[in-house]
Design a protein that fits this description.
alpha/beta, 147 residues, two-stranded parallel sheet, 33% helix, 7 helices
Length: 147
Amino acid sequence: MQGDPALEPAFIAAARRLVERGAVAISSNCGSAVRHQAAVASAVSVPVEMSSLLLVPALLRQLHPKAKLAVVTADSRVFQDDLLGLSDQADRDRIVIGGIEGGKLLENEYMRPPQPTDVADIERCSCLRRAAPRRKSGHRCATVHLH
C-alpha cells in the first residue's frame, strides 16, 4: 500500500507496452496505484484509471452532503489519507475506511500463486463485517471496494 515511487517507471513501461499491443484504455486494481495516475496518464494516449479511488471525489458529490462513503481496502492499517485525493477536511470526515486484514481471503490473495478462497470462509470472516461500516443510524455507507 505504500505506492513505492521506484515502481513508477515500471508502471509507465507496462502502460506503453499495453498501448503498443492495442489497448484502448488502462486500469489497475490496486488503490495505491493512484499515486502513479498522473505519470502513467501523461505517458500514453489512452484513458487511464489507475485506481477506483479516483472515483471518491465524484461519489461524494453524488451523495447527500451528510452521507458517508466507505472505502474497503485490503489492509486499513497501512491505508494513507493522501490516496483519497481530498483536500477538504469536511470531505475527508465523510470517508470511513475498513480493511479485510486478518481474514482468509487476504491471506490467500497474498500467497504466490494466490490461492482460491471458499465462499464459506469469506462469509464467516469477521473482517468483512468490520469492513462494512455502518453509520450511527444503522444504515450502511455507500462503498468503494479496493483490491
